[in-house]
Amino acid sequence: MSRSILVRRSPIHGNGVFAAADLPAGKSLIQYRGRLLSHAQADRRFSGNVDTGHTFLFVLNDRYVIDASVDGNAARWINHSCAPNCEPVLLESRAGDPAADRIFIETLRPIRAGEELTYDYGIELSVPHTARMKRLWACRCGAGACTGTILKDKRRPKSARR
All domains of the chain, ordered by start, with CATH? Predict the structure, then answer.
């Protein structure tokens, strides 16, 4: 694990990842690691788990998903926030091999030592986002503009409506 981050209990949820030192904007911190699954494999293994409100799955690209519950690293403990200070960045394979693509977590802005690292999960579920589902996938980030859920809004933004 990088010396610039550490894992400890989070006020947001469970474990979290925190800056061990001041970090500049645009710094690549850690690769999101885990077992590589096809989307079909992930669907077969986890489609019945939408009622848990918890996942270590990360969509890598159109062909693959990373399952950090197997061979995952500290990146799996980075919590969601509606006002994130980090973002996932896709590094595509130079050879054009989607199985060799990688996800890295990068800072969006300067981050002070001790600050929790977060990114917007943007989770999209195919099932309806009922009040029950929103509670299961609740957001606890505490941001002023918190949506209350880590699920991505299925509705189009007002600016895109006609």
Answer: 5-160 (2.170.270.10)
Tokens of residue 77, six digits = 């403990």
pTM assigned to the model: 0.86
Please name the residue that has the structure tokens 């509606």: 82
Sequence-ordered strand ranges (E) for 20-140: 28-31, 35-38, 57-59, 64-67, 79-80, 86-91, 102-107, 118-119
124-139: per-residue pLDDT in tens?
Answer: 777 777 888 888 888 9
Spatial distance between the Cα atoms of 74 and 151, rounded to a whole number of angstroms:
22
DSSP assignment letter at 66: E
CA distance 105 to 52: 25
Q: Report the SS3 class of residue 111.
A: strand
pLDDT digit string, tens, across residues 25-78: 999 999 999 999 999 998 888 765 555 556 798 999 999 999 999 999 999 999
Residue 143 CA to residue 110 CA, distance in Å, equals: 17
Nearest Cα residue to 16 out of 102, 101, 104, 85: 85
Nearest to 84 by CA among 15, 138, 128, 25: 25
